[in-house]
Amino acid sequence: MRSQHRGPESYVFPNAEDIANLQKTANWLLEQKIIPQRVDITTAVCPLETTAVR
C-alpha cells in the first residue's frame, strides 16, 4: 500500500560517469586507510543493459 505522504517513485541508474566518480571516491578512501581493501564499484552496480524499462 502506498503512503499518502509520498510522491511518485522514480529510479535513477548510474551512468559511466557516476560509476567513475564512485570508484574515485572508493580509491581515495583506500588511500586514506578508511577502508581496508580495494573496492571494485562495477561489481556493486546493476549494469545499464539489465535495467531497461519493461
Description:
This protein has one helix at 16-31. The chain contains 1 helix and no strands. It is mainly α and 54 residues long. 0% of the residues are buried.
List the helices and strands and how they pair.
Blueprint: H1 16-31
Summarize the entry for a quick read.
This protein has 1 helix and no strands.
The structure class reads mainly alpha
Radius of gyration, whole Å: 16 Å
Q: How large a portion of the residues is in β-strands, by DSSP E?
A: under 5%
Shape: elongated
Helix run count: 1
Low-confidence stretches: none
Helix coverage percent? 25-40%
The chain-level mean pLDDT equals 83
Count of extended strands: 0
**Amino- and carboxy-terminal Cα gap:** 22 Å
Question: The biggest beta sheet, please?
Answer: none
Order of SSEs: H
Index terms:
54 residues; mainly alpha; 1 helix; 30% helix; 0% strand; elongated
